[in-house]
Amino acid sequence: MNISKKLSIIVTLTIIEISFTIWAAFQISKGATFHQLNSLHLKFNAVFSEQVVAIQRGDRMEPEVIRSTIEDIREQPIQCLKQVNILDKMIMKQIGTDYALDLCEKDIADADKALQLLTDYVSGTLDRDLLLEGLVAAAAAFNDNSTKFEAPITRTVSFIFQTMIPMVIFISLFNILFITYLSKTISGSIGDVIALLSEDSDDDSFVERIDRNVSGELKELLLAAKDRIKRDLFNREMTKELERLVDQRTVSLQRANDELAQFAYRASHDLKGPLTTTKELAKYIDQDIGSGNLDEARENAKNISSLMMRLEDLVVDILALAKADLDSGEKESVDFNELLTEVVERLSWLKQRDTVDIIQQIKLTDQPVVERARVAQIIENLLSNSIKYLNASADTPYVKVMVSDESRDIHIEIEDNGLGIPDDRKDDVFKMFKRFHPTVSSGSGLGMAIVKKHIDYMGGTIRFHSSNNGTRFNITIPKSGV
Amino acid sequence: MEFELNNIPILIVDDSDMDRYILKRHLQEIDMGENIVEKIDGHSALEFLSDFENGKALYGDEFPPVIIILDINMPKIDGFEFLEQFSILRTEVAVESCVVMMFTSSERQEDKDKAFRYNFVKDYLIKGEYSNQELLQKIQKMLPGR
Q: In this structure, which of A181, A260, B53, B82 has its CB flanked by the most CB atoms within 10 Å?
């Protein structure tokens, strides 16, 4: 049973009890009213008797006064009958006091008779002696009625008293006990719910326990509260999560900005160098030609040439780096044999290329679908490094290119026996403008950064292992269209 | 030891052949190119300066150099590392007469501040942005006792 039902039972019981008590009080007071009416009846009858005695004595009779008195008498039983309702009649019938009501009717009839006598006398149809006789009889009748009226009324009142009071007490006691019981169960349920909430339990067993142990409105209350709190918590979590994301993004952006600033500085610095030097050298060529120092002039002209080539490489690489972030290429199915031949051909300008053994091992189950340009650049940059940084004191400097695949990825491995990557520079490998053997070769310092960007863009991975015996790069690129 | 202006021994420390070549020509144009030693990085420069006996034997009075023109971006031991080690060297060997002019393409204020922390660094030259006139004036200002 839920709490609101219990509460309405409590209200109902209280209403019943109060109604009952009020009704009992009315009934009891009715008894008092009857006694009162009876007293008045006696009083008026006393007055009437006196008037009759006075007339017998020989006093003058005033019919109207007598009439009025009789009417007063008559009024009392009329009032009594008015007061009595069906329930009262039933009770009086039960206890056998209903003859009191007949008495009232008789009394009214007696009064009517007396009144009739008076009317007859006044109209002259009745003589004085008969009237007197009648009046005396009436007075006696009234008196008799009154006397006989006492007992049943008293009896009825005490019956009501004797039954109502215990019933009121009983109902009150019952109510007290029942209401106490109901309130106890209500506070018990609430106490149980509090205990349930105070326990540590995970969400599922919590809902289960609510289901089992709680019912009605408390259950609804708990479930509604749980949902509300969950929603609030969820919102708060979301907000926290969003704030965290924003912070993360901000840090990311700041870092990107810093990187960009650094890059811009380094790039312009590296671009400016060759230009400044060329400017000076051109001046000297002019001077030297003028002074006839043609050998010097030629030497400087060659220097300008190589400076410009380096500058061109740098610009090309900066462009490649920028392009690497853009979605430029379409994917196509690539023949790796063809690709490798092309790349090696492109590296023919490297003066060490002829001293290096370039070994190809291609074991592919099909022609993978990739962005050709990116893969080509990765292989070209790594190959070019292996060639540039070969170990001149090795017996046969070589670089091995191995391409294989499995169900979902393409594997590219590039291994050489060159100078290797110094241990303390291993973290700098993919950073921009980092050259580890500047005395051996100078490039833009962007080659590996370009490789990393391509691999990141394609969702692949690159690892390397290096010592002064050589270096090995392992690259994995996911196949697309799988 | 007093030198004629055009005979002052100068040490150029720079890893770029062409930068050294250009500087040398500038010095020749202002008539100070007679007495130039070149080193390609901080390491060999320090070795040269610290090996006092050998230096004196090879170069006589023209060792140690009066003026060191020093690049910043060099492999192995760069310009700042050189300055640090040189400041220690000055307490051990009689090279206190050497004064340094930085010679670099870096215009960064932080690099200037870092260099001038050493009291023997007297000036700062930016590659490609000086005239012969300026070069002469700077060197003259640097010379001790002038």
A: B82
* pLDDT value, residue A482: 40
**Measuring CA to CA, how many Å separate A266 from each of A175, A273, A330, A332, A459?**
94, 11, 32, 36, 28
SS3 label, residue A345: helix
3-state helix, strand, coil in chain B (%, to 5): 45, 15, 35
| Share of residues in chain A with pLDDT > 70 (%) | 98
Of the candidates B15, B75, B128, which has its C-beta nearest A280's C-beta? B128
**Residue-averaged pLDDT of chain A:** 88
- Tell whether A128 is within 8 A of chain B (Cβ): no
Q: Which residues of A30-66 are buried (b: 16+ CB within 10 A; e: fewer)?
A: bbeebeebbeebbebbebbbebbeebeeeeebeeeeb
ipTM above 0.90, yes or no: no
Mutate which of A262, A268, A272, A280 to disrupt the B interface (most B C-beta within 10 Å)?
A280
- Pick the range with the lowest mean pLDDT from A206-220, A280-294, B38-52, B102-116: A206-220
Strands B10-13 and B67-70: parallel
Q: CB within 8 A of B82, min separation 6: which ones?
A: B13, B42, B45, B46, B70
Chain segment A391-403, per-residue pLDDT in tens: 888 888 899 999 9
- Nearest chain B Cα distance for residue A276, angstroms: 6
Mutate to test the interface with A, among B14, B21, B24 (most CBs of A within 10 A): B21
How many contiguous H segments (helices) and E segments (strands) does chain B have?
6, 5
- With vertex at residue A444, the alpha carbon angle to CA A260 and CA B80, rounded to the nearest 5 degrees, is 75
Q: Does A276 touch chain B (CB under 8 A)?
A: yes
Whether pTM > 0.80 for this model: the answer is no
Identify the weakest region by mean pLDDT among A62-71, A255-264, A327-336, A384-393: A327-336
- In B, residues 20-49, which contact A (CB 8 Å cutoff)? 22, 25
Rounded to an integer, what is the distance from CA A82 to the centroid of its chain?
67
pLDDT tens-digit map of B22-60: 999 999 999 988 889 999 988 999 999 888 888 888 888
In a mutagenesis test of the B interface, which of A270, A271, A272, A276 is the best target, namely the one with the most B β-carbons within 10 Å?
A276
Distance CA A16, CA A23 (A): 10
Listed residue (A358, A338, A317) closest to A442, CA to CA: A317
- Provide the token pair at A277: 């030097």
Rounded-to-integer distance, Cα B82 and Cα B43, Å: 8
